Protein 1
Amino acid sequence: MDSLDLAMTHLRAMADGDVEAARACLHPDHLNHMAVDEPPAAAQHGVPGFMATSAWLRSAFSDLSFDLIEGSSDEHATFAHVWMRGRQTGPFVVFPPGGAPVSFPATGREFAVRQAHVFRLRDGLHAEHSAVRDDLGMMTQLGHLPPSPASIARMARWNISGGARKSVASVVASAEGAATAATAL
């Protein structure tokens, strides 16, 4: 498998929650630099952290996919410019560094945003991942931004009803469960 195929296998494994594909792509010491605003379990190195990130994304987005626009690689790194697409069918919980998690209720809306992923290679596997993501564009397409009377009312109902609190606990547990299951295999 060449480096660009490895990158797309990595992203498909993320979208599908495919632990075997993840094992084929990731160095045991794999570090996801993007995990800083994801559930705590996503900060783990290797496949467990990867599977925690996958569970987190899949809990919020159905029909998740990554479609290659362009890519390039050398012996040290691979760059993949992609479209990330999906539909928000579950709560999307973000974990701001140093802050409390924030849960955004499902809107049922679709999104398509560009992302640029960089994969550092070691022993022919992904040892590090970083990305430039259009989170603002995604949140705008999902109807969470800019704040409008409708989005403010939706968030208020979500928080008052306890949905936000419950979704944070559920997403954290799902990510932890995925990481633990990946460790056990």
Protein 2
Amino acid sequence: MTVAPVCPFSTAMAFRKISQDVKQAAIHLYERELLNLQDIPSYCSFSESTWYRVLKLWRETGNVISHPTGARGRTLPGPRRP
């Protein structure tokens, strides 16, 4: 009987922050051709959309985490001029 491998970094959980280490491990599995592109999300327990978003970011920037740009939240208007 064959048991499917389990990614040591993963736990099934919705809306969780996936660490940079897990994302880099998934990229490593892909680049070294250790797993097929389609098998990586289930192996590391994140969604296909997350996987393809991470892969796209990796290909475009060479990084697996995005750096936010601009201000977060609501911006307040500046002082009024007379």
Protein 3
Amino acid sequence: MAFFNADRLAIIFGLLGNIISFLVFLAPLPTFYRICRKKSSEGFQSIPYSISFFSASSLLLYYAYLKTNAYMIVSINGIGCVIEALYIFLYILYAPKKVTLFTMRWILLFNGGGLGMIMLVSLLVVHGSKRVTLVGWVCAIINIDVFAAPLSVWYINVLFQIIFFSRYSHQLLVAASTSTLKILVRSYETI
């Protein structure tokens, strides 16, 4: 039992969290394969990918900058940033002009306005370790939004009774498991 001390458990669950997060980043791959094959965005929404890009690229990398020794956060969010940027590029490439402008506005709003406001408040109002705590809570809320964003599309699908249960049950399972891991286990970077 001494093998499973708090430090080792934090590393194990941190690695499991990174693996689950990587799989979540890859979850839209069939959708983008379909978009590339048909050379059309086919009415898919860009909001889930915009929020995920904001979470991975800006907010969590800023959080990792504020923390010390945040290697796991930087590694998975760096990979996620590249994957989400590719998704958004492909979406914009095959979307109609009106949808492309809508997507670009969301990206500018999240990455420019949202991150700018969070940085401004955290740098001017909050100091010391409370800054990391504030940004950490904002990251947690945004992560919940990342998992909730596909549910907005799911609601539309329910209205039209086009539900692919395996895909959405997988999304809910991943959201529940990562949220539980984040709550129950302290991150490796706090050691």
